[in-house]
Amino acid sequence: MAEETGQERTEEATPKRKQDARKKGDIPRSKDLTTMMMLMAAAVSIMTLGPGMVNGITGVMKSFFLRAADTHIAARELPAIFLTAIDHIVLSMLPFVIVMVLVAIVSPMLMSGWNFSIEAIKFKGDKLNPISGIKRVFGVNGVIEMVKTVLKFLVIAVFAVFLIWHQLPEILSIGRGDIMSSLKHAAELVSWTFLLVSATTILIVAVDVPQQLWQYSKKLKMTREQVKQEHKDTEGMPEVKSRLRQKQQEMAQRRMMEEVPKADVIVTNPTHFSVALKYDSENMGAPKVVAKGADEIAFRIREVARANNVPILETPPLARALYYSTKVNQEIPAGLYKAVAQVLAYVFQLRTNPRATEIRSIPEDLPIPDEFKR
Q1: Rounded distance, CA 133 to CA 163, Å?
Q2: pLDDT per residue as tens digits for the range 11-26
Q3: What 3-state class would DSSP assign to 7?
Q4: Which DSSP helix (H) or strand (E) runs through 266?
Q5: Which DSSP category does 222 fall into?
Q6: Which of 303, 320, 341 minimizes the C-alpha distance to 268?
Q7: Which of 52-61, 96-105, 310-319, 321-330 has the lowest mean pLDDT?
Q8: 172-185 burial by CB neighbour count: b if 16+ within 10 A, else e?
Q9: How do residues 249-275 score in pLDDT, each as one tens digit?
Q10: According to a count of CB atoms within 10 Å of the terminal CB, is the N or C end of the chain lower?
Q11: Of 112, 122, 124, the residue nearest 19 (C-alpha)
Q12: How far apart are the C-alpha atoms of 312 and 270, rounded to whole Å?
């Protein structure tokens, strides 16, 4: 019954729903992925940068204690010496800190890319509601997260115990050498153990990431009614769209009719088509169609032209060619240059000397290429 009424979330999230969720800061994330990246980066950094950090810190500490033990140094100089030692220690650890900060920034972006949302950082009072907090902790999701945490701990703990047990003879042999070699050997064992234990989180991530993506997709699913409503909100009601399209057409026709009085000539079919042409040699590369129409609109173009004393010439083949080949506010194609040039030459001669008898008339067969004939 629920599915019939469209209340079941059976539809995949639309692009708009996903975009709205991102704007609110709701994107799929995996804490385990970030944890794995941080642990692996820390392990590799310790193995590569660790010796340099240890040598730097050891040298600073030796220098500090030697200077502090110097009886010739006044007590008031000790704070400055201490601060200098701290500065050198911080500089020694700076590469490691930079690596960890970069990994902490990049890791969350691996699943969903960069996303900054004002909505996500806004204060929300319901987060301070203790009842809501208890429901989150002891709800179904809270129990699932607790079980997952326990399982992750057991996986890592079992693997760590296995590693330690496997390396137990080598660990026990550390004390047989001198102090420096023993410390170096111990550091290597700890580093490799840390790296291998961190690698176990890859298995956890391989399970967690697909699960997080599945849960996120499930959470964003929509009912059929929601899809229909979003489509209406995005595309608009058909009736509204129709009225809007009609208004746009009326506005476009009104603007087009305002250009008819500025035209140099109206070329007609004589009844079915009317095309208004304008040519300005200083501002145009070729004559331009400023208005055109068929049937009723063609009749209105001729009426406006007569009212404004714009010449109207009956040249059916050219009228049809211009109507079908050229859009409004577009220059005519090169194939019609010659035919239109003869029409404009005739019109310009009439405009210059309307009573002259030697003005040549327009040829009955204008040079119109076959591809433009209709």
Answers
A1: 39
A2: 788 888 888 888 777 7
A3: coil
A4: strand 265-268
A5: B
A6: 320
A7: 52-61
A8: eeeeeeeeeeeeeb
A9: 888 888 888 888 988 889 988 778 999
A10: N
A11: 112
A12: 9
For tokens 């068929």, what's the residue?
294
In DSSP terms, 313 is beta-bridged to: 267
pLDDT at 199: 83
How confident is the prediction for the chain on average, in pLDDT? 79
Q: Give residue for tokens 């009104």.
A: 254
Q: Which residues contact 208 (CB under 8 A, 6 or more apart)?
A: 30, 32, 33, 148
Nearest to 302 by CA among 289, 317, 313: 313
Q: Are 291 and 256 in contact (CB under 8 A)?
A: yes
8 Å CB contact between 265 and 318: no
65: left (phi over 0), alpha (psi -120 to 50) or beta: alpha
Q: What is the pTM of this model?
A: 0.50
- Residues with Cβ within 8 Å of 276's Cβ and at least 6 positions away in sequence, in order, are 259, 260, 263, 265, 266, 267, 289, 290, 291, 292, 301, 305, 310
68-82, 242-256, 307-321: the lowest-pLDDT one: 68-82
Q: What is the dihedral of CA 14, 18, 23, 25, to 10 degrees?
A: 150
Token pair listed for 211: 């699960």
CA distance 318 to 324: 10
Parallel, antiparallel or unpaired: strands 273-278 and 330-331: unpaired
